[in-house]
Amino acid sequence: MGNSDDDVCGFLPKIDDKSPQGFLGRLKLSELRPTQNGVGMDEVKAKVKGLQDKSGGKLLDYLLPRTVPIVIGNDGYYLIDHHHLGISLWIAKGDIDVPVLVTRNWAPIKGDRFWKTMADNDWVYPYSALGAGPFNPNTLKQHVKDLDNDLYRSLSWLVREDYGYVKDASNPIFAEFKWGSFFRTRVIFKEQLTCKKEDSVNLTLKKLMHDDPDDYADKIRYAKHLAASPDAAGLPGFVGRSR
């Protein structure tokens, strides 16, 4: 999977288990351990499309403002944000080096103590892409390429893109999943009721729009209405007005 962008971050020092908090360096995508199981594949596909024509300096200019925050510990390097970027880069560019920032170095902490500390900081989302859980974090995906599709994470992204809520630095990590959980119990597409269980994880907004455009349009309108409703007032980035 090699390509000309393998060394775009080669000027940065290599991260190891002694790298201190606040240290900016590089790691390969294959070295990053996820702290969630799902991503919205509609968002991933949009990112992949935007990444395919970026290389060299343009790719570096794109990556540096999106430096991946990591926690060192439990014998690994755990990304606590930018999972969508990680899998998108893997698809578009392969196993390249990416800029990472050491948020915490907890190298001596392992096992249950590590995961409890991560949970105390809201840095792990141990749910399946279908919303089940929480599960033991040892069951989390081991590679960004293996992340599953979460339809409601895509829905939360689409609503956010239309300014249904805002994303800023004050929002907690996994804020979009909180919105996804909100929509999961309120917005049901007709195709979800008729597809086979094994096919449900592959449903995307693009597919729903293609297969039943009227139902899709109706449910998207409803999701945007819900995002502005009092029921959503406690969610991060709540705006409270419909467009």
From TrEMBL:
InterPro entries for this protein: ParB/Sulfiredoxin_sf, ParBc_2
Pfam families registered for this protein in UniProt: ParBc_2
Protein name as it appears in the record:
ParB/Srx family N-terminal domain-containing protein
Q: Which domain of life is it from?
A: Bacteria
